[in-house]
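Lab notebook, bench 4. Continuing the backlog of folding jobs that were queued last week. Each job is logged with the same field layout so the records can be merged later without manual cleanup. Today's entry covers ABC transporter, a 359-residue chain. Filled in by technician R.K.

JOB TYPE: sequence-to-structure
TARGET: ABC transporter
LENGTH: 359
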Amino acid sequence: MSHAVIIKQAVKKYGDFTALNGVNLEMKPGEFFTLLGPSGCGKTTLLRMIAGFNSVDGGEICFDDRVINNLDAHKRDIGMVFQNYAIFPHLTVAENVAYGLKAKKYPKDQISRKVEEALDLVQIKNLKDRKPNELSGGQQQRVALARAFVIEPGVLLMDEPLSNLDAKLRVQMRTVIKKLQRRLGITTIYVTHDQEEALAISDRIAVMKEGNIMQVGSPEDIYKKPANTFVAGFIGVSNFIDCEVAGSDPANAVLNIKGECSLTCKLKSAYTGKGIISARPEQLFFDEKEGLPGKIVISTFLGDFIEYEIQLNNGQTIQLNEYTKDAGDLRPDGQEVRVNFDISAVGVYDAQTQEVISW
Ligand SMILES: Nc1ncnc2c1ncn2[C@@H]1O[C@H](COP(=O)(O)OP(=O)(O)OP(=O)(O)O)[C@@H](O)[C@H]1O
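JOB STATUS: finished
OUTPUT FIELD FOLLOWS
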């Protein structure tokens, strides 16, 4: 049965260095949950704590309502898939997949049936008698996957399982993993530093930075409503535009962008001071009358959209994407333009705390 995984105030220290700084997370049974963040933010450390390979220096790791801090890794009801596959080189594909079932002393006929089913699910039944060195990277990762889920663990842990594959195979394999997870319904915790992969594969994502959780949400939430400028900058592309916020009345706050443009928006609460507007390239558009004045530095035709790099008169460089089907003729480099956006669609952040303040 799939477990809920609950992390309460988890702390990990390596000497003086704090790798996890009181992390709280709750993964629901059957959920595909991704830990996403730049290199060194603590993703693998947290995954290894859940697996039982890292000790817990503070807080609790729970499967359902059971604290498992001190439970041995092999008693935790987990399956694990690593970046480097970690399949046994001297065993055939079928023997690799059967390994965990043998250890659990399943009867022989059940083992061969389960192995057949697992190999069928990852579509490598025809390779069952091969040794790992006779397989491609993608095929080896399918073996590792089958070996992990065949034992029907309550939680499946995956640490950058696709990062050794080439770009095309990575995209194929993430669909294989997603479909498989949906079908099996095993709670899955997936580590990656690739934001596109995280958006594509997850039910929910926790974005991490320096041992802290910056935001938890669905891929759509995280992309459309970043809680802070770190998430806005890490997931997709964001243009950050400085402004002054006069928001003593939060229902009618006025944003002033270097005297060139004044906008009103709704804030969560009263705030007056320096602000940052974060707008996605596709949220910006050309406006003949209003908006921020600037000049096109370079235009790049990319098929389905055109990417414009624009230098604003206030000195900032921004990126505006226009979908080809909505665009007129390609605008030439050097053209003077005005750039506008719908203030209710973009995020406004407190320049000091970097947290979102707009409604
Ligand atoms: N055994 C260790 N001893 C000392 N420091 C460690 C140890 N393991 C990890 N760290 C440090 O803890 C921090 C978090 O490491 P971790 O491997 O969890 O990061 P990560 O987010 O998984 O990064 P990556 O994407 O590069 O794998 C890093 O700064 C790392 O140098």
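OBSERVATION: The CA atoms of residues 97 and 147 lie 4 Å apart.
SIGNED: R.K.
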